[in-house]
Design goal:
It is a single chain. This protein is α+β, with helices and mostly antiparallel strands and 170 residues long. It folds into two domains: 43 residues, no CATH class; 103 residues, Immunoglobulins (Immunoglobulin-like, Sandwich), CATH 2.60.40. The protein is 18% helix and 36% strand. It is built from three helices and eight strands, in the order αααββββββββ. A four-stranded antiparallel β-sheet has the order 1-3-6-5, with no helix packed on it. The protein has a four-stranded mixed β-sheet with strand order 2-8-7-4, with no helix packed on it. A hairpin with a 5-residue loop joins strand 7 and strand 8. The longest helix is centred in the first third of the chain and has 18 residues. The radius of gyration is 27 Å and the shape is elongated.
């Protein structure tokens, strides 16, 4: 057992020593960017991955402004499905392209325009909420991903789910 431990220790020392013998030329080559390890510009300019100090080409952006960013359904009964239509306008100078809309859970399902929305034109995002199996105050979000800055706009819905008649209170 001691021989095995000594062998592993010796191998570790030899391997770490091999890594420390790089010449100055090798060290410089390791830190100099090459074509294969440079960061691509589209990653740098992506609002979802870049810092707040990024440079985004305004020629590719649109604008999205909603009439309201939140809606309260009030009280609903467990199992009831309710929906609301969020109205928006493209306030930018370019076509608005909504690439995705996601609810914060499976009970919140958005429907959005799949075609580009021209500058100055309006559109709608319908959000359906299914209260089945929920109780109490519920707060959900819908995240809209588009060619805007920032690239994600959040809509909020709230409701209070009451037990169905004849159902035991939680």
């Amino acid at each position: 057992m001691k021989k095995l431990l000594v062998s592993f220790a010796f191998a570790g020392v030899v391997l770490s020593a091999c890594n420390n013998t790089a010449t100055e030329e090798n060290a410089a080559a390791e830190t100099t960017p090459t074509e294969t390890n440079q960061i691509q510009p589209d990653v740098i300019n992506n609002p979802e991955t870049a810092s707040e100090q990024q440079v985004v080409d305004p020629a590719t952006l649109a604008g999205i402004t909603f009439e309201k960013y939140e809606h309260n359904f009030g009280q609903v009964v467990d199992g009831e499905k309710v929906s609301y239509v969020f109205k928006f306008k493209n306030t930018g100078a370019n076509d608005l392209i909504i690439s995705d809309a996601r609810g914060s859970c499976g009970c919140t399902v958005p429907q959005w325009p799949k075609e580009p929305v021209k500058p100055g034109a309006s559109g709608e995002i319908k959000v359906e909420y299914d209260s089945k199996g929920k109780s109490g105050v519920q707060k959900k979000t819908v995240s809209i991903t588009a060619n805007t800055n920032p690239s994600i706009t959040t809509l909020d819905i709230t409701t209070e789910v009451l037990p169905a008649k004849g159902a035991p209170a939680n």
